[in-house]
Design brief:
By secondary structure, the chain is of the alpha+beta class. The chain is built from nine helices and eight strands.
Length: 303
């Protein structure tokens, strides 16, 4: 869409806003809008909540697990209203599934149609705070796992799974917030989403690490615990590198990964211990994989 630049008498330059955008965002003469400048690009945002649209799905032949997967995908995409058409009575199952989607609620069931809406809405200005919250949840999750695995080993599998669902819930919320924000820089938008997806993968790997130990009661040694603690430090360093971006902090993540690799080579452990350690190594490598995405997100090119 092109707009002609108009020069005003006081040397200012103006353009007109598309009427469709003005109407959909309820802009009037008293409204204020936000401008974000990135090189040659100016992004205009209204302060109103971003609408994610609605969709209707024929779910007659779907099982509840399949429906739950669809809901999660549409939630992450940023859809605000979903109409599920099915003659099956799935109200209670839907409510349980929706507990993993912050803001989603079952509004009504009428004429074989279940209507699900976002009753919270999301502010794009909250994006950094959501990132911070997700990171902190994952770090705390790993801290608890290490404490239990190398400590009293009292946690049960169902409790671990419940904590994993909580991590996934906030990761989905982060992905939804990213998709609902409009990016003039499409590369940055894709990098942000991939970064959030990688955080979810790290959370899943922590779950596997914890669950493996709970199910097999693996014997550990001091060196394995030390490696796990270094990995936790690496996850914390990734947090610092994202929120206090500089190459020194990014290099610290690489250094801690390399330290883990060096210590792992020297270990003499059995097959079950190797299986447990493999999860720690995977978490470490995925933390390192966040670095190039972080650089893509935070680095601005000179024009």
């Amino acid at each position: 869409m092109k707009r002609k630049v108009i020069k005003q008498a006081n040397q200012a330059y103006t353009i007109t806003l598309p009427i469709e955008w003005v109407r959909s965002n309820q802009i009037n003469e008293k409204s204020e809008i936000n401008l974000e400048i990135e090189g040659k690009t100016i992004m205009i945002n209204s302060k109103n909540k971003i609408k994610g649209g609605q969709i209707t799905i024929d779910a007659e032949n779907f099982e509840i697990k399949e429906i739950a997967g669809i809901l999660n995908s549409l939630y992450a995409k940023g859809i605000d209203e979903i109409n599920l058409k099915t003659s099956k009575e799935i109200s209670s199952e839907l409510i349980r599934s929706l507990s993993q989607n912050i803001g989603y609620a079952l509004i009504e069931n009428k004429n074989n149609t279940y209507t699900i809406k976002d009753i919270k809405g999301s502010e794009t200005s909250e994006l950094d705070e959501i990132f911070k919250r997700v990171f902190q949840i994952i770090i705390l999750f790993f801290e608890s796992a290490i404490k239990d695995v190398f400590g009293k080993q009292e946690e049960k599998t169902e409790n671990i799974n419940a904590r994993d669902l909580e991590v996934n819930k906030f990761c989905l919320y982060l992905q939804r917030a990213i998709n609902k924000k409009s990016y003039p820089d499409h590369i940055k938008g894709r990098a942000l989403f991939t970064y959030s997806f990688m955080l979810e993968k790290i959370g899943d790997e922590i779950t596997r690490f914890w669950r493996t130990n709970t199910e097999h009661k693996i014997k550990k040694n001091k060196s394995m615990k030390e490696i796990a603690q270094i990995c936790l430090e690496e996850l914390g360093a990734s947090f610092d590198a994202y929120f206090e971006f500089n190459l020194k902090k990014i290099n610290k993540v690489f250094d801690l990964r390399n330290k883990i690799r060096e210590k792992t080579i020297k270990l003499n452990i059995d097959s079950k211990q190797t299986e447990l350690l493999r999860h720690i190594i995977k978490i470490s490598e995925e933390c390192t994989d966040l670095n190039p995405l972080n650089i893509m997100i935070k680095t601005q090119t000179q024009q």
